[in-house]
Design goal:
This protein is an alpha+beta fold. It contains eight helices and eleven strands. α1 runs antiparallel to α2. The longest helix is centred in the N-terminal third of the chain and has 24 residues.
């Protein structure tokens, strides 16, 4: 509702064995943020395209190295192009295959899981206010309205090296995943997210409801949301059956 340009980028890449879902929220201004987020999404999609299973530890290492590769490419560009100095991006990567999920995380875009009516934030923000919460100086509610709530402490491209967080877990039939930029989660609290995600609407309607809610509360930032609804998990993935409903809007 406020910004004239969109520095968010996302991708959805699915086949019969796995799904790759990425949200990147760029920063830097003068279109540089858009360049950083687009570079990150393209590199991540390309480097992870060959993944077919999440059973091996190799995939976790590949995901972390992919985010480091995106970081190096973006940072190198800030050194050679004056108008790109200071650009960077968040990156939240969700991979789903068979009965497993894996997440690679840098920044404050988030991945949530709705399971059996309960909403859980799977990722932890790399942000100033999250550090203050971890240290006991702020409550989560205070952090939400803190004047530095949008200050991140780790991103892709700002420095020569970055260390991604990796999360792994089990996928069950009926699970619903949300991958979103802080244009959504900064405007809509977890209680309201849970209500909207827990409705009986289909994934497409849920995505639009989330974006409408964020815009209704001011829409101060670009809003990107991907919803992945697991219809079946397990052997159905390898047999080629339809296992996921996906809706994404950015």
């Amino acid at each position: 509702m406020i910004r004239s340009g969109n520095e968010d980028n996302f991708t959805v890449d699915t086949n019969v064995t796995r799904g790759i879902f990425v949200v990147a929220d760029g920063m830097g201004g003068h279109a540089a943020g858009e360049v950083a987020s687009e570079m990150a999404v393209q590199i991540i999609q390309r480097e992870l395209a060959s993944v077919t299973t999440l059973e091996s530890d190799d995939v976790a290492m590949l995901t972390a190295e992919t985010l480091r590769k995106a970081n190096r490419a973006i940072h190198d560009r800030t050194l050679t192009e004056v108008d790109k100095q200071g650009m960077g991006t968040t990156a939240s990567v969700l991979l789903i295959a068979a009965t497993r999920y894996l997440i690679g995380q840098v920044g404050d875009s988030r991945v949530y899981l709705m399971r059996d009516g309960a909403l859980t934030q799977l990722t932890k923000d790399h942000s100033y206010v999250q550090e203050q919460v971890d240290a006991g100086f702020l409550t989560p509610e205070q952090a939400r309205y803190h004047p530095y709530s949008n200050v991140i402490t780790r991103c892709v491209g700002a420095s020569p090296e970055v260390e991604p967080d990796i999360y792994r877990g089990e996928v069950r039939t009926g699970d619903l995943f949300l991958v979103a930029s802080d244009g959504l989660t900064g405007m809509v609290d977890d209680r309201r997210l849970s209500q909207l995600l827990g409705s009986r609407a289909d994934p497409d309607r849920k995505v639009h409801a989330l974006i409408s809610e964020a815009n209704g509360r001011g829409g101060l930032d670009n809003i990107t949301a991907i919803i992945v609804q697991v219809v079946e998990s397990g052997e159905a993935v390898s047999s080629g059956d339809d296992t996921m409903e996906v809706r994404a809007v950015g």
